[in-house]
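Progress report, Aim 2. The chain analyzed during this reporting quarter is listed below.
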Amino acid sequence: MWNSRVLDYRIVIAFLFSALMGVVLIPLLPIFTSNPLFLLAIPIGGLFFILMVVKPAWTLAILLLSRPLLDLLLNLTKVSVGGEEMGIGALLNLVIIIMAVFMAFYYSTFPHREKTVLCWIIFLALMLVAVVNSPFQGRAIRLYFNYVSYFSMLLIPFLVIKTKEDWVFWMKILAGSFVLPILFANFDLARGGQYYASAGMRIAGTFTHPNILAFYLVLGLTIYFYLLKDNPLKLKPRWIWALKILMLNMIVLLIATKTRNAWVACFGGFFIYGWFKDQKFLLVLFLFVVGLLLIPPVQERVMTVVSKSQSSDYQGINSWEWRREMWKSSLPRIAERPLQGYGLTSFKPMSEQFSDVGRNMGAHNVYLEVLFETGIFGLLSFIALFLSPLIIFSKKMFQDNQTSAKLAAILVGYIVSYMIICSADNLLYYLVLNWYVWFFLGLMLVKERLT
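Predicted structure tokens for the chain:
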């Protein structure tokens, strides 16, 4: 039965959010008419909003199962708002943020003692200062809302999960959300993928770039490997075999993305698991890597990094040399403003002023870019986002309980692999990937509370 006080409370919240959305959307209607597809945002947003008030958990489940399929479609809805491209994807981003706020009130709870949550609050506070300092505030505000949505995805498991049964349900939803994107990536593989000047034919699946698919697959492999080692879903033997076949399929797709950073990160994550908890697994891992190096497309991608004689479209130098030149050229600018930085999203447009190898391009190194834009304290707060769960799971990795220690080693391996990826890619801009990364880490941290 509904409690009248709670029902009244929800009605008040719904009314306030409805008024806020009306105030925001009405002035934007003339802009939306420039792209008729964007007009779909209003009824779709309304349906999501109504569902969120009635059944917030259903709304979240629908978003988790569908969002990886929508990138290409959502790109078609983009219009220019204040010089920035915005589409229905921005509305879904807002839905996640509002959902986290709504659930905090709905369930009357907030994990204020959780260290990772506190690290995120500090990080967001410093990023807000960087938004104010940014000379490119439209871009900065947009990226800041992405960060808030990542935090929301971390926070939501703490709000909705109260029992082990709840945890199993959301783990099923997360695991199931990878199935259709993998299927569509296979279609992309079957038709040969798309040509890229720097790497030849690559697949991107339902995402806008092969790198995003690759990093998404690394996360999916980690989640499925975790399920194989723990089996919290109580899978029957035939489903376990299906899961193993699916993982082999994902490895093939990962190779077809030709994303070297993802290859290294995936190897690094599983190497950590094998080194600390299963030395026999290391032998299998190394034999597998040797086998991969015999594949001509893999050899070619590796050689374009280690050989200076082979260059792509990076102004006559390979991608590694290009990155090093970009990073080196930014260091004098960083030294000029080491504390406050130049403001959020400033690296890319300012790169034209200090770099000869990358004009108007991202740093392809999250640590360097965060340092450039937000200063040393911003960088430290970013690193703390990962050190906090890393410390939690590292401690558990060395406990006597072999099963839980192995599971913790998988999580430690993934966090390290994510940090590896950050060293050579613009990872914080990949919205969908980070949603699932932080929801996964939120689930794992909540599990620690339930045990």
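Residues 1-108 form one domain. Residues 1-8 have pLDDT under 50 and may be disordered. These observations will guide the mutagenesis work planned for the next reporting period.
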